[in-house]
Amino acid sequence: MATPVGWSQGGSGSVCLAFDQLRDVIESQEELIHQLRNVMILQDENFVSKEEFQAVEKKLVEEKAAHAKTKVLLAKEEEKLQFALGEVEVLSKQLEKEKLAFEKALSSVKSRALQESSKKDQLITKCNGRREARSPSHACLHGHFPNSPVPVSRAGFHPNFCPRLRIQASPSGPHLRKGLQGPGRPRK
């Protein structure tokens, strides 16, 4: 460092000593100022302004409120879901019971239909046996000529339908009436 104007270089030692001390103090203060500037630069980079902080803080409060609302809605929907799952379970059990009841009823109906079918076949066989016993000429005719057509009555009805004469009482007196009767179902 250069000697200031007006100071002599060979002057008293106390002035030089004071000057050296003053220079050391100035250098240390300059270094301290330089460090403080670096700290301020870092603070400017790492810190935000008060307005920005308040805006972010307000946004955080709004997000927390929205989160709380969403949490309440989630709890309600979760409750609805649990209720719906309970209903599904109850309905599944009920459906299973109804399915078993339906299968049991269907099995019963099938069994009864099979019995009725068997009974019908027996009745047809019995009816055919009686019919063959009553008209041996037809049986004989069909036995000798298997390709001959089934005889048809004059009215054009199938041979299982038999015309019958019925007597009906009326106030003017009894009348003969011709009626038709099918196999297995007598007319009244």
Automatic annotation (TrEMBL):
PANTHER family for the chain: SPERMATOGENESIS-ASSOCIATED PROTEIN 24 (PTHR35155:SF1)
Source organism of this protein record: Bos mutus grunniens
GO CC term (a single one): cytoplasm
Region of interest: Disordered: 166-188
GO molecular function per UniProt: DNA binding
Superkingdom as given in the UniProt entry: Eukaryota
Name under which the protein is recorded: Spermatosis associated 24
Cited InterPro entries: SPATA24
Stretches assigned to coiled coil: none
